[in-house]
Q: What sequence folds into this?
């Protein structure tokens, strides 16, 4: 057990170092440097050269990488943004990660119950119209690009706000934890809580479409397997209601792959809410990093890559542990 | 069962939330929607247009551009004089102007601000990039000769010095605040402008509040909130729904639609900008003037304006925008003449031994610029026009930063680019974009045009302080440039911004300076 844990932890650390190093090297191999965006149409060759030297960008990439990893390991600080004067990247990330997490959590709160329900429906009424409907929906959900879905949602729900976490005119709200849904409740600003709920609806719905579809499909196939098993037949033979058979006997046994895929999707969403954040101007981590890639801002991209890798790795780790708990066979092997 | 109870609580909270009253909109707050957020609020490190928009309302400069022209008028300085040799400029400051932090503006504050902008090792600079620093290298020394008198000593006479002082990087900052905040000054700015800083949540909202003590009088809006909305479709939707009051940087065709909406107004103003086709004159076949002329003759600018600008632009003849002082009105543009173009190309082909059709690569940026809202449409137009005279064009789109880097390095054949004025002076176009001094890996003379006489004229223009003597210098330079065709000027755009009709007195400025001092809601007393 502890051996398993240690092994997984070691894998996690190695994965992170490799991922971060790859991004680090790729950014520096790309043409251009962060100063191009910073100086825009007023480049000053002499001054740019000086900054390149100060930042050490004229040194071999591997030695730059070494210095970066050393700084990260010793201070835990990512440094200052280049394109945004004097911006502390760690502080900015700390402010933006909650926005992304909040969006992801709400999206998963939609995706998991709806996806599982759709999957169960499809499995129970296999090859009948509910199955076809759910699976067609699931196919559509994974195939429609988020930006297009975003446009459709905006066109359909014309009464819903688009963009931002709260309306722009609200200037007296001071977040505490940066989780707006939580903060508005903590401050007993129920009007703002309602507004924040309305603001998160469309982005969360758009973001939930892909995981919801995937969860529905996995649930369906996993449930089908279990519904054909002997113990389900026994349950039915004993006279248990079909609701009880499905929910109490079949679903728990079909849960392991669902948990696995849901965990994987959480990791994917946290790191990949980029498109949704851009379409809905959600000021989360994804948008921050993408804007930085456009401007070649090494510092932000590296920090973002680190955080995303960390989220991904820990999501996988959590899934492994959950698996362990759900499936006794893994524990003994 | 705890899970059920939790669900019950959640649902009742949601219901409670949904039934409670929506927060009401404050009456006199302007919400300004634009494409992206500011990068910094420290004037010495600002570069992007979206950053400048905020700074113009936070800071005052010694002298300022007039409301709707590039005329220089007094601002923090009430009067100024120049010595006969043009090397000494003395500025008299306005009496009793306070920074937003309550400290007074005096000669020392001015010297502190300008030194931060220009000195190499200034102790109060927290980010040494300072893109506009080269424009102020001409200053040799600053001296306070009285509490409200500042003397600038220049290394050489300069005709553009005063205009440069009117630009945003020369905004006067509170020394007390700079010393107090250090690195944090770029997010806690203190100036003397019509609005003071209130709060900034990056990529969400930037709030300014009226400066009750502004020397020009209190502005009309209590607050201004700048919000970044990256998609123009979203900005339009929000504007129509009344979630924002002003939206800028919208596509031309969408603006025509918005203008039909009775609740909205589309403000319009000429822009001191020019879009042009740059040609790499150092490399064959574009080193041959006949090829460059042939390209110029093949482009129908009126058709381009219809196709890519929805009619909201004017054909450009020279690199200088027509509305700018110094523009040579006497030059008549080459006609659109594909036949003459083909003949010239054929002659060049016979001489130089290249085969027709010629193949050229056209570099273009993939994102809109103020002078080119739809770059790919312009590129497609150039491609089609040149195909008609025997030049096969392949379009090579690149993200803006990469595009301009390639152009500056001379690593292209023909490329679309343009310029918006910084300081309203012809030098800012002609010297910056066509003088041999600006040929380098990061120089803006992208066509690598070299003409000794033009160089002499432009240098003389920089030093000549008498406008009557300066004008002929720039006219001659424009004639020579027109004859040599290193570039093909395409259009100057008309800038437009859509806003709710409730807003009155919102004026656009030819240099795209967004100043919200005079604008107001018509229905707010």
A:
């Amino acid at each position: 057990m502890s051996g398993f844990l240690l092994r997984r932890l070691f894998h996690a650390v190695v994965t992170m170092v490799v991922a971060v190093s790859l991004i680090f090297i790729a950014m520096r191999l790309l043409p251009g440097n962060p100063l191009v965006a910073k100086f825009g149409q007023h480049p000053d060759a002499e001054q740019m050269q000086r900054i390149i030297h100060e930042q050490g960008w004229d040194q071999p990439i591997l030695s730059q990488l070494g210095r970066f990893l050393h700084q990260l390991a010793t201070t835990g600080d990512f440094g200052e943004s280049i394109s945004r004067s004097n911006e502390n990247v760690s502080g900015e990330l700390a402010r933006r990660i909650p926005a992304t997490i909040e969006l992801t959590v709400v999206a998963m709160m939609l995706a998991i119950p709806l996806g599982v329900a759709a999957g169960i429906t499809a499995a129970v009424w296999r090859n009948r119209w509910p199955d076809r409907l759910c699976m067609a929906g699931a196919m559509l959900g994974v195939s429609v690009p988020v930006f297009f879905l975003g446009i459709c949602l905006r066109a359909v729900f014309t009464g819903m706000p688009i963009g931002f976490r709260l309306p722009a005119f609200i200037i007296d709200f001071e977040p505490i934890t940066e989780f707006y849904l939580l903060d508005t409740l903590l401050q007993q600003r129920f009007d703002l809580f309602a507004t924040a709920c309305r603001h998160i609806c469309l982005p969360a719905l758009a973001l939930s479409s892909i995981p919801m579809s995937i969860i529905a499909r996995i649930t369906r196939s996993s449930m089908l397997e279990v519904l054909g098993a002997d113990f389900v037949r026994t349950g039915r033979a004993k006279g248990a209601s079909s609701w009880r058979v499905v929910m109490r006997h079949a679903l728990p046994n079909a849960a392991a792959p669902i948990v696995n895929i849901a965990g994987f999707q959480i990791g994917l969403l946290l790191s990949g809410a980029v498109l949704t954040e851009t379409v809905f101007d959600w000021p989360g981590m994804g948008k921050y990093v993408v804007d930085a890639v456009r401007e070649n801002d090494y510092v932000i991209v590296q920090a973002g890559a680190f955080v995303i890798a960390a989220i991904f790795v820990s999501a996988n780790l959590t899934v492994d542990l959950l698996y362990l708990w759900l499936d006794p066979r893994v524990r003994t092997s | 069962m705890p899970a059920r109870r939790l669900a019950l609580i959640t649902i009742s909270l949601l219901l409670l939330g949904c039934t409670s009253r929506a927060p009401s909109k404050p009456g006199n707050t302007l919400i300004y929607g634009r494409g992206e957020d500011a990068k910094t609020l420290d004037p010495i490190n600002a570069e992007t247009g979206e950053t400048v928009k905020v700074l113009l309302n936070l800071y005052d400069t010694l002298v300022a551009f007039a409301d709707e022209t590039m005329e220089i008028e007094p601002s923090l300085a009430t009067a100024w004089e120049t010595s006969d040799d043009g090397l000494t400029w003395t500025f008299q400051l306005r009496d009793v102007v306070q920074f937003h932090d309550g400290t007074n503006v005096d000669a020392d504050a001015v010297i502190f601000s300008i030194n931060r902008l220009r000195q190499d090792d200034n102790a109060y600079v927290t980010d040494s990039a300072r893109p506009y620093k080269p424009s102020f290298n001409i200053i040799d020394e600053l001296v306070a000769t009285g509490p409200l008198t500042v003397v600038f000593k220049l290394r050489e006479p300069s005709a553009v010095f005063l205009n440069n002082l009117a630009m945003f990087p020369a905004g006067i900052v509170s020394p007390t605040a700079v010393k107090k905040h250090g690195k944090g000054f770029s997010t806690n700015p203190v100036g003397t402008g019509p609005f003071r800083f209130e709060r900034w949540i990056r990529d969400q909202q930037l709030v300014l509040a009226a400066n009750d003590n502004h020397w020009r009088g209190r502005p009309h809006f209590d607050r201004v909130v700048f919000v970044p909305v990256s998609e123009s479709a979203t900005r339009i939707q929000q504007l129509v729904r009344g979630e924002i009051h002003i939206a800028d940087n919208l596509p031309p065709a969408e603006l025509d639609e918005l203008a039909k909406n009775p609740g909205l107004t589309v403000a319009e103003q000429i822009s001191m900008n020019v879009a042009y086709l740059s040609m790499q004159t150092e490399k064959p076949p574009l080193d041959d003037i006949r090829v460059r002329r042939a390209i110029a003759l093949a482009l129908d600018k009126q058709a381009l304006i219809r196709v890519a600008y929805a009619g909201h632009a004017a054909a450009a003849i020279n690199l200088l925008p027509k509305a700018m002082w110094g523009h040579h009105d006497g030059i008549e543009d080459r006609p659109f003449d594909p036949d003459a173009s083909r003949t010239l190309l054929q002659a060049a082909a016979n001489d130089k031994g290249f085969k027709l059709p010629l193949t050229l690569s056209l570099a273009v940026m993939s994102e809109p610029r103020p002078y080119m809202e739809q770059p790919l449409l312009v590129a497609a137009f150039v491609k089609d026009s040149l195909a008609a005279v025997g030049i096969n064009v392949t379009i090579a789109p690149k993200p803006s930063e990469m595009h301009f880097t390639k152009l500056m390095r001379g690593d292209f054949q023909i490329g679309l680019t343009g310029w918006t004025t910084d300081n309203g002076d012809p030098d800012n176009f002609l010297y910056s974009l066509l003088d041999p001094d600006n040929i380098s890996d990061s120089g803006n003379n992208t066509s690598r045009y070299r003409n000794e006489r033009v160089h002499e004229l432009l240098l003389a223009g920089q030093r000549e302080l008498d406008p009557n003597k300066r004008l002929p210098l720039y006219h001659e330079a424009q004639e020579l440039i027109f004859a040599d065709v290193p570039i093909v000027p395409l259009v100057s755009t008309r800038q437009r911004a859509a806003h709710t009709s409730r807003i009155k007195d919102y004026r656009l400025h030819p240099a795209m300076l967004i100043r919200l001092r005079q604008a107001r809601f018509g229905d707010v007393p």
Summary: The two ends of chain A are 10 Å apart (CA to CA). Chain A touches chain B through 55 residues (CB under 8 Å). The mean pLDDT of chain A is 87. DSSP finds 15 helices and no strands in chain A.
